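hey can u run this one w/ iron/sulfur cluster bound, need the structure tokens asap thx
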Amino acid sequence: MTYGFKVMQNMISGLSQYLDEREMSLSDLVGRAVPKFVEWQQLSLTYVTRARISQEDCIKCGRCYVACEDTRHQAIAMKPGRVLEVNDAVCVACNLCSTFARCETASPWKNCRRGAGPAQGPQSRAP
Ligand code: SF4
Ligand code: SF4
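ok here u go:
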């Protein structure tokens, strides 16, 4: 959405860097997730995550707000002073906001936290 198809080049270069740093080849990655596979009946149906915004770290760029407001569930409210708050009753934990949240800080992603919240309306609300 923000970067267009150029994001594919970034993914390729990121993967290359990851492999080079670990002296791995692409074939070394194939199948590594398989041991973590489980049937859906083994998943916790009460575990729910919601987006979290750290007010003390937020630089109020608004990118997470736009991402959710324009494309998803309008789950982030912008209050006076550009204070952003996630509405847990609406957020479906799709993760889109943190995907587009490029906080201009030393650690770009740390401002946009996701955390476990109380189970509310279950997986029928999943994205
Ligand atoms: S993307 Fe991060 S820094 Fe920007 S408004 Fe959202 S939480 Fe704040
Ligand atoms: S996780 Fe999805 S629904 Fe929740 S605030 Fe972020 S973009 Fe909106």
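The helical segments are 6-21, 26-29, 63-71, 96-100. anyway lmk if its weird
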